[in-house]
Amino acid sequence: MPFLRSLFEWVDTFPTSIALRESQFVYPYILTAHVVGMCIFAGLICMMDLRLLGVGNLRTPFSQVQRRLFPWQMAGLAVSAVTGLLLVYGQPMRFYSNFFFWIKTLMMVLAGVNALAFHRTTYHSVASWDSDAAIPFGAKLAGALGLALWAGVVVSGRLIAYNWFSRT
Amino acid sequence: MLSFFQMLNDLTLSATIRESIWISPVVNVLHLLALVVFAGAVLIVDLRLLGRGAREQPLARVAGDAQPWLIAGFLGLLVTGIPQLISNAMREYYSAFFWFKMEVMVVALIYTFTLRRKVTLADEARVGPFWSKVTGLVSIALWALVAIPARLIGLFT
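Predict the joint structure of the above. Result:
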């Protein structure tokens, strides 16, 4: 994709981008903050999806798990997103040529679509199954897909470091 | 201690892990997935201790539901942590972050399964919101001090 490539190449020339990739300490600390954000975001998403799937936190109605964890999930997401963008900003060409970076991006989009689809369909009827042992198929599917996709995001995010299949 | 770490480093299994191109990444990735489960199970209870999270529910119920995931997550971290330790034993031995992580982890573990567990099972009215909040904040601080140096071991060697 020529547009994306020139965008990444352009960012690569920014003095602040160069400063970031040449810094000895800032980059590792941003990476560490990214992992902390991941713990909060993915951890609480995982707890919510286990509830949806019907295997965890079952004594709390789903709508309470969802509503009460949501602000904390968003806080974790904000930390991960800001630090993640900084990581890409500091080394755009490294990420552009990395296979797992694009897999991770794709999986994040799919996870977002999954959450949106669930909220627009099955979640409308939450009142009828909120505290039920019998969780509708749509909710279980959304929970399973959420767990699989976010696990995929975490896994491909970690594998970026290994540089397999990278075109440099 | 040094000779113990040298012994770990010299194990056939350690060499096998070091020489394989895929074992370390796979174990590493599984360690992260276990971390996500563990962090979620810790946080869902700590948020409730802070008077946030699922506050309509009794604390003991939230903590009881999270407990199997807390234990599963920790066992996952342990099982995937050991191969990383033995295959990099000398690097770990000379890493200040590694020792810091391990020391805080021992404290955090004891704290989680004694004091914190006692508070989550106790009558909430008796504990009161102040001590409940202190319990949650100490838990978050301790586990953050395990996770943060853990990431730094690999970045500064």
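DSSP finds seven helices and no strands in chain A.
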